[in-house]
Amino acid sequence: MKTEEVGNALLETWTADEVAEAFARNEIVLIDVRTPQEYMFEHIEGALLMPMAFFRPEKLPGQGEKRIVFHCGSGARSERVARAAIASGMARVAHMEGGFGAWKGSHKPYIGTNMATGAPTPVG
């Protein structure tokens, strides 16, 4: 994990492996900031959807029991959202480096779309 001090806050950048391990142990809440269309086509099972266009940091839960980790397609949008969360007063925020592309590139399981039927299909 990489860390960067942003004022009095800490921005963490997690690898797909770190996210997968923490998610499997139920230590984090994974929030997908991609569009609803991207999410419906393929997503990490159990990740919550809060599209960047509708992001409201004041609506996020506290991080007392579970940490929040944002992710998007490549890591660019999730970093912007993480920085917006810090700007709203959150003291420690994380996002996944490389986004969903890194997750798929690491051969982690996800829900895809069966192109023949349009049905959600587990991949990996």
Reported by name, the CATH topology is: Oxidized Rhodanese, domain 1
Outline the low-pLDDT stretches: none
Q: What general outline do the C-alpha atoms trace?
A: globular
Largest beta-sheet details: 6 strands, mixed
> Structural class, from secondary structure content?
alpha/beta
CATH architecture: 3-Layer(aba) Sandwich
How confident is the prediction overall: mean pLDDT?
A: 95
**The CATH fourth-level homologous superfamily:** Rhodanese-like domain
Give the SSE string: EEHEHEEHEHEE
- Total beta-strand segments: 8
Instruction: Estimate nothing, just give the exact number of structural domains.
Output: 1
Record the strand order, biggest sheet: 1-2-6-5-3-4
CATH class: Alpha Beta
- Percent helix: 25-40%
Number of helices: 4
Distance between the terminal alpha carbons, to the nearest Å? 24 Å
